[in-house]
Amino acid sequence: MLGYDWPRLHAALNDLPAALLLVAVLFDLASAVTRRASLRTAGFWTLVAGAAGAALAVVSGLEAEDHIAHGEAVHRAMETHEELALITLGVFVVLALWRIVRERRMGSTERAVVLAASVGGLMALLATAVYGGKLVFDHAAGIPTEVLQAEMHERAEGHHHDGGEGEAAADPAPGADSAAVGPAATATDSAPSAGHTHAPGTPPHKD
């Protein structure tokens, strides 16, 4: 699918709905504080778009689970991530449908309940993101085994910059044994200057 497998597609679909849902809750909080209807309207449409995107992210995540090589630790983290994602999706889909039906007829009490549920959904969203991060950064989930092995081999060899050895050779390290360079320097300094002669009859003198 355009060069994407399910794990890569899931990663590509994750960010936008998470950002939209976060901003939707922020719009609603700002509307509750300022009493501005325009912010509430922006929160409504952002919520609807975010809920639709979250559905796509969850579906791709469920498909990606069967295409990722993993062990027991990754499986446990994956199951927790999946449960939190389904809870998050459920909360925001219900809120989106609720507001589609009731947005123009809500009273202050009903709107406060919706806002509280939105904040709860946001907490679930953040927890989902934390476990998604654990899967990638703690367990390298989604990275093919052969790619991971090649990367481990490269890291074991270390990272080298071009010209590093030349610079080290040109400038001795601080504290280096002076005996390594001292004799050569002394021999050079003590050697008589080439072509140094005296005119006839010049009295002997010390250099």
Plain-language structure description:
This protein has seven helices and no strands. It has 207 residues and is mainly α. It has one domain (6-157).
Descriptive keywords:
mainly alpha, about 210 residues, about 0% strand
Write a brief structural summary.
The protein has helices at 6-34, 37-65, 72-102, 108-138, 145-157, 164-170, 182-190. The chain has 207 residues and is an all-alpha fold.
Radius of gyration: 34 Å
Number of helices: 7
Q: What do the pLDDT scores average to? A: 81
Structural class: mainly alpha
The outline comes out as elongated
Number of E strands: 0
The figure for the number of domains is: 1
What is the helix content? over 70%
Low-confidence segments, ≥5 residues, pLDDT <50? 165-170, 178-195
State the separation between the terminal residues, measured CA to CA: 85 Å
Provide the succession of SSEs.
HHHHHHH
Report strand %: under 5%
Give the biggest beta sheet.
none
